[in-house]
Amino acid sequence: MSEHIYTPRGVCSRQIEFDLEEGRIHNVRFTGGCDGNLKAIAKLVEGKQACEIIDLLEGNTCGPRTTSCADQLVRALKAASA
Q1: 41 and 28 in contact (C-beta within 8 Å)?
Q2: CB atoms < 10 A from the CB of 59, how many?
Q3: What average pLDDT does the segment 60-76 reach?
Q4: Fewest Cβ atoms nearer than 10 Å: which of 35, 49, 64, 78?
Q5: 3-state DSSP assignment of residue 19
Q6: Is residue 43 exposed (0-12), middle (13-18) or buried (19+ Cβ within 10 Å)?
Q7: How far apart are CA 60 and CA 67, in angstroms?
Q8: How far apart are CA 82 and CA 27, in angstroms?
Q9: Residue 24: helix, strand or coil by DSSP?
Q10: Tell me, what's the pLDDT at 44?
Q11: What number is the average pLDDT over the span 28-55?
Q12: 12 CB contacts (<8 Å, ≥6 apart)?
């Protein structure tokens, strides 16, 4: 299992941490942002294939922003897979 830390841009959360094991997402933790919503995202993606979550959440926006915490998680997953 590999641990990853990502610094999001353009959103309220300040950091995203997660583990990847054989392409599956575990232990997603957001620092800052909308606490309840981000805890829900973490629960929903737990154990899922990263590629599935990338397809599902990529391009999601928050209000007038061109990104969101969910979209930033996608960017973090892509960076971890590179």
Answers
A1: yes
A2: 10
A3: 97
A4: 64
A5: strand
A6: exposed
A7: 6
A8: 20
A9: strand
A10: 98
A11: 98
A12: 32, 33, 34, 69
User: Exposed, middle or buried by CB within 10 Å (0-12, 13-18, 19+), for 73?
Assistant: buried
In the predicted model, is pLDDT for residue 59 greater than 90? yes
Residue 11's pLDDT is what?
98
Query: Which positions ≥6 away from 76 have C-beta within 8 Å?
Result: 4, 6, 8, 16, 18
**How buried is residue 60: exposed, middle or buried, by Cβ count under 10 Å (0-12/13-18/19+)?**
middle
Residue 25 pLDDT more than 80? yes
Q: Token pair 């960076």 is at which residue?
A: 79
The yes-or-no verdict on residue 82 having pLDDT over 90 is no
